[in-house]
Design brief:
Blueprint (H helix, E strand, L loop, with lengths): L4 H11 L6 H9 L20 E4 L2 E3 L2 H10 L7 E5 L5 H10 L11 E6 L2 H13 L6 E5 L12 E6 L8 H5 L1 E11 L6 E8 L5 E9 L13
Parallel strand pairs: 3-4, 3-6, 4-5, 6-7
Antiparallel strand pairs: 1-2, 7-8, 8-9
Helix pairs in contact: 2-4
The structure holds S-adenosylmethionine.
């Protein structure tokens, strides 16, 4: 049978070596980006670029979600914080890994995702409900640069907007043995995807995973305009 455009996009990410782990590959295939896009962007959903989702914001490119989901070393049962829900798509791919339908519900993890644009938080919530992730993903309207103290600490933290520096509350809300990913750098150029690992004693290690281009993180620990 002819492959769908989305299956071809996933194939390319496999060929490029960006997608490697069976659970991450399965999640990408299970959640085509199209379903989380506004009507007028759906025709472009399989292109490996960010796309506009309104309010000056974007849905991430498939390769970026693949890179982040691989680097996070996600496992069934983890509690994950995403800062920047956008359309809700990235959080749904994570839910497929940490709370797969074929695992007992008692073993499921949960994704908490925070969005600072109220209308986007509402759109993300609608998308998450419509696509059947309402019991695995919680969307909150607010300033995620301060983290989400109500549900902290987290096994994994990912920030999908570029911060001027690593916000201390996010580091504080990461569990020992936790991993955090955050783009750090100027508003338009020279951001690096930074991976922070906290060991069992709480010591931190920082690695640079390479150059990226994200929309700016706003809020208390974000960029000031
Ligand atoms: N993960 C999203 C998806 O799957 O569609 C894409 C995220 S988009 C690249 C970055 C998002 O971060 C935007 O929706 C933006 O409004 C949001 N954002 C920026 N600063 C924020 C903050 N301080 N707290 C929460 N969300 C923030």
């Amino acid at each position: 049978m002819e492959k769908t455009d989305w299956e071809k996009t996933v194939d390319n990410l496999l060929r490029e070596g960006i997608l490697r782990s069976p659970s991450v590959i399965k999640a990408m295939l299970a959640v085509p980006r199209k379903r989380f896009l506004p009507e007028d962007q759906r025709a472009y959903s399989a292109m490996d670029t960010p796309l506009p989702i309104g309010f000056g914001q974007t849905i991430s490119a498939p390769h970026m979600v693949a890179i982040m989901n691989e680097a996070l070393r996600l496992e069934v049962g983890q509690k994950v914080l995403e800062v920047g829900a956008g359309s809700g798509w990235h959080s749904a791919t994570i839910a497929e890994i940490i709370a797969p339908k074929d695992a007992p519900r008692s073993e499921w993890g949960h994704v908490y995702t925070v969005e600072i644009v109220q209308s986007l938080a509402e759109i993300a919530r609608k998308n998450i409900m419509n696509e059947g992730y309402g019991d695995r993903v919680t969307i909150t309207y607010g300033d995620g640069s301060k983290g989400y103290p109500a549900k902290a600490p987290f096994d994994r933290v990912l920030v999908t907007a570029a911060a001027p520096r690593v916000p201390q509350p996010l580091v504080d809300q990461l569990k020992p043995e936790g991993i955090m990913l955050i783009p750090v750098g100027s508003v338009l150029l020279f951001q690096n995807l930074v991976k922070i690992t906290k060991d069992s004693s709480g010591a931190l290690k920082e690695e640079n995973l390479g150059g990226v281009a994200f929309v700016p993180l706003t809020g208390e620990h974000g960029h000031k305009f």
